[in-house]
From TrEMBL:
Region of interest (Disordered), ranges: 14-39, 151-200
Domain SAM-dependent MTase DRM-type: 227-542
Species: Castilleja foliolosa
Gene3D superfamilies: Vaccinia Virus protein VP39
Recorded GO CC terms: nucleus
Protein name (record): DNA (Cytosine-5-)-methyltransferase
Length: 542
């Protein structure tokens, strides 16, 4: 969650005073039907943001109030965390307080509620998600220790026969029957003995491959694929904005995103319509939906189109057409591929299972009975980026991680294509958590001139990738790179708006800035809150 230890300690040590009963909005229907959602002024109680010279706490309070938090919630968080807490930490604390009130008994004392908050903060610091923590409290009860709660998350089977001590209020039903629910099927274990009672060499390697780590997580979302576009008032007016997530996010994460993006439902799309990658990407935006068009020339729509020189080596029984994701674990797979070369074709009954494993690990045929992981250059083509776009990232695994976290530009470009007619002379863009520059690459491929670009990205290597692309792609506008979104205070934003005469498009995506490069970080709510702050401020500057 991003809390500094000192902030957590301070929150734990202080007593709860004036704690208000908080309600949890855990579903789109409950959370979004309370009021009219499309008028920015009416729906979010917009107040003038203080000038840059005013007290920092006043600016934070104004930002939080615009997000539809109550004054009591905001004051409670500010009092407990202090003036040094950033907006994202304050939002996190408010949500934890809501969860604690939701889990506790109605007659619980303030001390008991704050005890729950303390446990939740510790579990969040361990890296558990909101859903995991809520389920742990449901199974173990609010009196359980943090260690017991953590154990129930790590080993739910050991706790499944334990009677629940308390049923959470306002549970969210994870509707996995949704048309866009995409949970990766696990390969079924079967009797793999040969007629002589021995496991075949093929089956041994299939089992070995299945045991390798898979850095992807199943996706289970219950969101509309074709949200109605009935935006009115200030929400529908420029500057336009788009917040996208190219990685899997939970239902609860999308509820939070929608709540703070003017209650606009996300638009989900499968990238297989536009590329050789099959992955769900979600966008929350106020862009028009008419007059969209596909980037031309369009990228490859199948693996064979992306790497045509390998087509002759594909066996007829391997019917894969597209990647289902980008696998970044390659070291042990290379060893497996070397062993595979010495084995003959698999028996028919094992082919289906093998195909599933090859699909999970992004292995392609590069010779007779010879497999190899896709190279970063091949992934760049599939993702819609120029060849060698990520070369400055160094080793293959690091390049693959950068591409995995990026937008598929043919897919993003389809949604941004409406801007070409609206801005025939070009536009100015601010991109928060810009990554490897998916937004600007997509706009460039659409033939839209970038008159000015503010790229906010914490990762130095990714900033180098964007700068190199900007210089090599013949851009005539000005590129401003910002290394931290925290540097975009009100005064800085006003200067940038003045410098570029306003922004026509503000783009954001999930921040992937884990210090451990081996970790594929999930949804970062604190950084999302910073994006919302920047978006609101830029849209309010006249």
């Amino acid at each position: 969650m991003g809390f500094a230890p000192s902030v957590v300690d301070k929150a734990i040590e202080e007593n709860v005073q004036d704690h208000q009963q908080l309600k949890t909005e855990e579903s789109f229907d409950d959370g979004l039907s309370r009021k009219s959602t499309n008028d920015l002024t009416a729906n979010h109680n917009v107040k003038e943001e203080p000038d840059a010279g005013n007290n920092v706490n006043d600016e934070k309070k104004a930002s939080l109030l615009k997000m539809d938090f109550s004054l009591a919630e905001v004051d409670f968080a500010l009092n407990r965390l202090g003036k040094d807490a950033v907006v994202g930490q304050l939002m996190d604390f408010i949500f934890v307080a809501r969860m604690a009130r939701n889990i506790s008994h109605e007659h619980s004392s303030d001390e008991a509620i704050f005890g729950i908050i303390e446990k939740m903060l510790q579990l969040f610091e361990m890296g558990f998600t909101e859903n995991e923590i809520s389920t742990a409290f449901e199974i173990c009860g609010s009196e359980a220790s943090p260690q017991e709660l953590a154990d129930s998350i790590f080993d739910p089977k050991a706790h499944k026969n334990r009677p629940p001590k308390r049923k959470l209020k306002d549970e969210v039903a994870e509707d996995t029957s949704s048309p866009i629910s995409r949970t990766r099927p696990e390969a079924k274990k079967r009797n793999s003995s040969s007629a002589g009672g021995r496991m075949t060499a093929w089956q041994k390697m299939v089992d070995e491959l299945g045991g390798l780590e898979d850095d992807r997580k199943p996706i289970a979302m219950s969101m509309p694929t074709n949200p109605s576009r009935t935006l009115t008032g200030m929400v529908a007016k420029p500057p336009y904005f788009l917040y996208g997530n190219a990685m899997s996010s939970s239902h609860t994460s999308w509820v939070s995103i929608t709540q703070f993006m003017h209650s606009i439902h996300p638009e989900f799309v499968n990238t297989e319509t536009y590329s050789a990658l099959s992955r769900i990407e979600g966008y929350v935006h106020n862009l028009p939906t008419g007059d969209r068009f596909i980037i031309s020339p369009r990228g490859p729509l199948s693996i064979q189109e992306a790497i045509p020189h390998t087509k002759k080596w594909w066996p007829v029984w391997d019917n894969r057409k597209q990647l289902i994701d980008i696998n970044t674990e390659t070291s042990r797979i290379s060893h497996f591929c070397e062993r595979l070369e010495r084995v003959s074709d698999p028996p028919p009954e094992q082919r289906r299972e093998l195909i599933q494993q090859l699909q999970d690990k992004n292995l392609v045929w590069v010779g007779r009975n010879k497999l190899s992981p896709l190279e970063p250059e091949q992934i760049e083509v599939i993702m819609g980026y120029p060849l060698h776009h990520t070369r400055v990232a160094g080793f293959g695994a690091e390049r693959l991680k950068s591409l995995k976290q990026a937008f598929q530009t043919d897919t993003l470009g389809y949604h941004l294509s409406v801007l070409k007619k609206l801005y025939p002379e070009g536009l100015t863009v601010m991109s928060c958590f810009d990554g490897i520059g998916g937004a600007e690459v997509a706009l460039h491929r659409l033939g839209i001139r970038l008159k000015g670009m503010v790229s906010v990205e914490a990762n130095e290597i990714k900033r180098k990738i964007v700068k190199r692309w900007w210089e090599s792609s013949g851009q005539t506008g000005e590129l401003v790179q910002v290394e931290s979104i925290h540097k975009l205070k009100s005064s800085n934003l006003e200067e940038l708006v003045k410098k570029f005469h306003g922004f026509d498009l503000i783009v954001g995506q999930n921040s992937y800035c884990s210090e451990d490069s081996s970790v594929m970080s999930g949804f970062d709510f604190s950084m999302f809150a910073e994006f919302v702050r920047v978006l609101q401020r830029v849209r309010s500057i006249r």
